[in-house]
C-alpha cells in the first residue's frame, strides 16, 4: 500500500491527448478511487500534493485523488459531499446549497480536507469545476512543457507561460475583456491551491493586453434596448385577459420589474434551479403598506441578489401611482386579490403552479411586444431595468437618484442610461440660442445683478459694524470689502476695529 492515494493515468504512446481525453482519464480515476475507498483501509496523504501535477513532460497527467477513505474514520475533517452544512444559530437563509458540488471538485483539491474544498466551491457565484479559461491554460502549458514552472509542474504559472498564453488568445482575436476573465479563472486556481499568482498580475501582462486592445480594437457594444414608459403603456394595452391568472402573473411581473429596476434573475427562476423560498421571491416577499385594501406603497424584500451575496436581504420601496396604466402596486394588489396563494408560494408562477422561469418570461414578453406592433429584436429581461433608468434620466433625475433606485454600487448605472434623441437635439439647439445673444447685453445684465447684490448686503454689514469697500477703495486700503471685478462680485469682510 502506498503512502498516499494518488493514481496515475497511463501515458499514451502517440500524440498528446486533447482535453476530452484528459477529462475521461479523470472520470476513470474518480471511479477507481470510489471502488478503492470501499475495499482499502483509510490512508492519509503525506503533504499537500501539487494541483494538476504531471509526472511526464510530454503527455502523462497525474491528478491526485482523495476519497472518503483518505480521512480517518470519525475525523472532524469528514464531510458528506451530498449534505449541506448546518450551522448552529444560523439565519433562515444560511446554509443554503447554492448549487450541487461536483465530485470532481473534491478530487481536484486533495491538498485540503473535503470541508475546506466544499466552502471553496461556494466562494464564487460563477464557480465551475473547470472553466473555459482554466481548460485552455492547462492545454496550452501541456503542449509546451518549456512553459512549466518545473518539469511536469503546471502551477504556479510562470510569467513567460502567461505571456505566451495571452498572446495566443490575442492571435485568436479574443476580446480583452474575455482574456481578463480567463486570467481571473487561472488566478482562482492559484488561490484555491494556496499558491502565489504574481505572474498573472504582472504589469507586463497588463501591457500585453493593452497592446492587443490597441491592435484589434474593441467590438462595438450591442446593449439590450430599453423598455421606456411609452412602451410600457403599449404593453399594458395588449393583455389578452386581464383576469386570467397567467396574464395577471405576467402583468404584475413586468410592471414590478420596471418600477423596481429589477434584474431578470431577481424575479424569475433559472431553468435548472429548484425553487427555494430562502433565495427566490415568494408571496411573503411583498408587504402592502398600510394594507392591501388601500396601499400607498409596497415593500419588496429580495432574499438574495447580485449585490447581496450573503443573503442579508434587500428592501425595495415602490410607490403606488393609481392613475398609471403600469402601476406595480395596483397590479400586485389585483393579482393577490383574484388569485390568493400561501405565503411561501412563488411570487410569480404559471397556471400549473410551477415558478416562472426566465425563458418563459422572455418568450411571453416577445409575444406581447409583437401584439403591440414592436419589433422584438434587441429586447430581453434586462430591458425593463434599462428602460426605467433611461426614463428616469429623461425626467431629469440626478445620477445619485438613478443609482439609488437601481441599487448600483458603482458607475455601471451609466451604461444603462440612454439619452433620448429629442433631449440631445434640444440641447444642441440651445447652443445656437446662447451664441446669438450679444456680449454687451450679457455684461450689462451682470453689472446690474452685482449692483443689486451690493444694495442688499450693504445694510446688513453696516448693522454689524462692518465696512464695505468698493473696488477703488480696496486698492488704497488693506481692509476687506465687496469689490467688482469684471463679471462677478467678491465679498471680503473684516470686522471694524
UniProtKB/TrEMBL annotation:
- Please give the coiled-coil regions recorded for this protein: none
What molecular function does GO assign, one term? DNA binding
Please provide the record's keywords in A-Z order. Answer: DNA recombination, DNA-binding
The UniProt regions of compositional bias labelled Basic and acidic residues, in chain numbering, are 59-71
Provide the GO biological process annotations.
DNA integration; DNA recombination
Using the UniProt annotation, give all residue ranges assigned to the region (Disordered).
34-87
From the record, give the transmembrane residue ranges. none
**Known InterPro entries for this protein?**
DNA_brk_join_enz, Integrase-like_cat_sf, Integrase_recombinase_N, Phage_Integrase-like_Recomb
Q: What is this protein called?
A: Uncharacterized protein
Q: Which organism is it from?
A: Collybiopsis confluens
